[in-house]
Amino acid sequence: MTSLSGKTAVVTGASAGIGEATARALAGAGARVMLIARRLDRLEALAEDIGAGACCLAIDLASVDAALTMLDAATAQLGQVDILVNNAGILRTSHVDSFDLAELEPMIAINYSAVVRSSILFARAMKQRGSGQIVNISSIGASLSASGAGVYGSLKVALDRFTDVLRIELAGSGVRVGQVAPGTTSTEIFEDMKARGQPGWDEYIPAMVPQDIARAILFMCEQTGNANAARMHIYATSEAF
Questions:
Q1: Residue 235 pLDDT
Q2: Fewer CB within 10 Å, N or C, the chain?
Q3: CATH code, 71
Q4: Which residues are catalytic?
């Protein structure tokens, strides 16, 4: 029997990068997974590749109704949700002189509001059942004051605080809550920077790969008994922050 045999999981941002690697890792440990992202073609291909009852939902997480739609779809197709991994996120970087304010609301919607909504709705369902695991993907950027990353970093700070408070509010309920903060990892999150002619952060050092972060998420989800791995920072070995 594998470590997550009989469990179900919902993973957002599952069409590529850390989300895809996490979905594969959880499925490999025995969980049935629901894949959430906007790109249906990628989700369907991944679900077919994973097999083992994997299903998918294409949705824009910036929508205020997305979290409830996710919960309803997951309940209908999986029966119940044991694990929620809020991984979806976008990165827009720029100095104050050139930051495009049109990028502000989408970043807030995806990186913070969508995570808060889904965490609260899924937490209520898990608490009623008496068990569950929520994993919110943060960033070491929450601990850095770096030029050009003020909006991204501040949203991760807010997410960290929300996740900590959610863990405290759910203590003793059977619902575990944790956050995984990746360091520099080569994913599509840097594509916008590169498209604008900026070097991606993953070009400065030997960066991690999505599977490195997926292993940490899997470890968090495998905790049993009284253990809750509440905070994990995963750095590339070359990072010295």
A1: 96
A2: N
A3: 3.40.50.720
A4: 152
